[in-house]
Design a protein that fits this description.
heterodimer; A: 280 residues; Uridine Diphospho-n-acetylenolpyruvylglucosamine Reductase, domain 2; Uridine Diphospho-n-acetylenolpyruvylglucosamine Reductase, domain 3; Enolase-like, domain 1; 33% helix; B: 798 residues; alpha+beta; Aldehyde Oxidoreductase, domain 3; Aldehyde Oxidoreductase, domain 4; 19 helices
Chain lengths: 280, 798
Amino acid sequence: MKPAPFDYARARSVEHAVELLGREGARVLAGGQSLIATLNMRLSHPSLLVDINEVTGLDRIARRNGHIEIGALVRHVQAERSAEIAQTAPLVARALPHIGHPAIRNRGTIGGSIAFADPAAELPACLLALDGEVEIAGPAGKRTVKADDFFQGLFETALGPRDVLIAIRLPAATHDTRVGFAELARRHGDYAMVGLAAAARANGTKLTDVRLVFFGVGSTPVRARDAEAALAAGDLEAGVKALARNLDPPDDVQATGAVKKHLAGVLLRRVARQLTEAPQ
Amino acid sequence: MNDRDLPAGLTALDRPNSYIGRSVARPNLARLTQGRGQYVSDVVLPRMAHAAFVRSPHAHARIKQINTDAAKRVPGVIAVVTGAELATVCTPWVGVLTHLKGLKSAPQHAVAVERACWQGEAVVAVVARTRALAEDAAELVEVEYEELPAVTDAETALDKATPVIHPDLGDNLTFERTLDAGQVDKALNESDAVVETTFLFGRHTGVTNEPRAAVADWNEGAQRLTVHHGTQAPHMMQNIFAKHLGLAEHQVRVVTNDVGGSFGIKVHVYADEMATVALSKLLKRPVKYVADRIESFVTDIHARDHRVKARIGVTKDGRITAFEIDDLTGIGPYSVYPRTSGIEANQIVNLVGGPYACPNYRARARVVFQNKNVMCQYRAVGHPIATAVTEGLVELAAAKIGIDPVEVRRKNLIADEAYPCGSAAGLKFEKLSHHASLDKLIAMMDYDRLRRDQAAARARGIHRGIGFAAFIEVTNPSAAFYGVGGARISSQDGATVRLDAQGAVICHTGVTEQGQGSEAVIAQVVATSFGVPLDRVRVITGDTDNTPYGGGTWASRAAGIGGEAAWQAGKALRANVLAVAASILQAEPKALDIRAAAVVDADTGRERIGLDEVARIAYFRPDTLPPGFQAELMATRHYVPRAWPFAFTNGIQASHLEVDTDTGFVTLLDHWVVEDCGTVINPQLVDEQIRGGVVQGIGAALFEHCLYDAQGQLLNGNMADYLVPMAAEMPDIQVGHVVTPTGDSEIGAKGAGEAGTAGAPGAVMNAVNDALRPLGARSITVMPITPGVVLQALGKSE
């Protein structure tokens, strides 16, 4: 459990980080909660770790133009304690306590979680459910990628090898925003066997703009688009049935795909109930 | 002093200021909690090198070629050693015992020679200045394998079409035992109901807080080997290191200071630890090896993994007529040395039906080889399986004839007045307390109220279950366990107690401390039998150069066997000290006693002379003692159980839980244990042994599972995917005691280490079935009980 040799450089700025990432095999080090474990297990052999922890300005939570922007280096614990996030990103606030354990949340970062894109992780699903976007700095300058385009495959995202994720942006919740979150893990703090992050807009007794994102069911967080339409049509039973078409979870060590599919239906019923509740 | 001299109602344990039965803090607590422990992982020696191993990625493969050139060129690498090279220093071993008739196994090497037989078996050893360098170099070792067919399914291991893993052995059968007592067929025919089912127990492992570790130091000048070793049995390992490295035992010293948890994992011979010792001999310098978590999962012994077909017969009025089992287990490619991998199956045959007065019992157990990591004895060897099978059958039978699970036990548990007696399997029971334990449990859990609450919750759509598991537990083993089978594993143990020059006591004991508190128990016993406050006793364990010869810590023997030796040694030293004091005071030794570190008049308690003064005179002014009188301020005593081959204990557990019938998730609500380990020396330590054991049992019931694919690859060998039970999911565990001391020893203590693990899985399984039965679910007889298993039973998932 000793990592293979690697070089280490501390980036002074985002631009410096991008420059350092020019080296073949370089990787960004943020909170290190996934990366360090893969290094110790020799599952990854980076040539250089570009430590962005000292870069200033990446640990802010700010509200602008109807959005909330969360810097890449905001730690989970900081987000958990943020009144701004509780108010304007209630879905994220609900998801955060499910992420690992306090020691992990003390160190792990929001940006790291999104960039690593573990398909069973909570925050990528939340970003996608909220129709958020990702701000990226790369050799050609800054760009913004919508969540729907960001998650591309197993641990694959729109980030190139020389890109640094610098922030995520989420639409701030309004009075008609409805969110729901549930996950099933056999032990508290584990990656979910199945999870569901959901957002919608209330329109009288109906829901519009329903976004249902399941995690732990595939190689990326997965939108259940037919189920979204069914819920918008007010037909929960059709939504549960549609999951058979929308989800195709593979077997893993915790559950078979069939069990996961069943559990996804249970979660949809539970989360649908949450979506009908107005925020306190 | 013996019992005859005491007033009625008192025993030898009722000494003034007795520490027996008191929850005193462990003397090593402050040291350990302040981070000043000395674990093997902490040991650093001059010129110490570090070993890492190249391990087979295949479950079964011929090693065609090994190229170590690139690895040897890495700066800081000291040696890259193949199995063939290491075999010149260390002979192979075969894990058999003669009293397990027919048990066979093949020679196993420290590092594989020619063939790797499981994924994770060491194939090449790399020694370097640091562990990191050794791992770097290990990545550069090129091994060319020819994959061989892997035998992974125990069910087909004996089929003609299945390759034989060790052709010299003729087949893949390691061991078979059959037993036929009473008239099983007749009893089953005459039963009103027969329940037949198959139980499946998942393969799991013991996850120790500190991994296995060894620092071996061969001193060429002294021709001595010192091994700092995280083991439960230092003297056993001394013998084994000597035997396989061609040394005399006196040339080998095994030092075992602090050990971060063992649970039976650290009482076996591990190839990589043998390799570490052999490397030190080969390289003539200290070599350290600490298993990392990933290699621990593929090398620490696994356990359980049994398929048990089982039957029970009952009459309409709830009398159990017969038990029958057919057990099959796959134990990996080798029977583990020196305790063998036949013991768990053997225990299952011994223990099934054990709590019950039922003379009709038939059993068969077969143990087969397979290409997976080796299996051997882990905490409560065989007990959790035997208990879950027995108690699962009992509750299924009770449900079938429609009587309460408590009632069926009242009718069938061996009567508390029936002892001494034996079981159908031939076990001998000195004195057990099944009914007293059941009564106490029912009172603790307020059973009738719980049943009413269960019914009320069910009416609201909440499905809760209550399950029981009565058990017997093997502790304090005599030579019948291993010695008679030819293993050089000591069942006797010793203690040496010495008065220091200020009147404090130093105790050397052969039992070892694994974090469970045996040092505390030994200190309490010595303080009481000798007569000093606890802070005047220092206990020294784990050093074959300095402690009396003994077996160490396993099978719940430390308190019962090591404790009795320490009790007798304390008494002997008391007599010796009183002889000195009597000669100083010109008194009769019989009229004196030692209390609170002073010699007193036995009748009045009046202080006559302090121990410090006795020590001063004996050590520095012996010229003032009468001519011809020699003070002996050190005494050694040994003890081994002789009257009974094992001190059986008993107990019963109950689990209360809730099942989410939509998700299949189980939430544990309460857990109760009543246990009878005889004299309780330290109630807190006993209770925590029970609680820790229950948690490991719950791990088996709900979480822990070494998942292999059909090619023999372990799929979840890491702490994220292998689920050890964690605090958030555990219920409160309430522990009660019934006290039936063993008459085999003066202190009367039996073991308590296995009880929690023995009963918890069966209790949890029964509670889940109790919750689901009214829903028409199929009975669950599979562990771990995952959400998928529950959903299947409910017909909600295929």
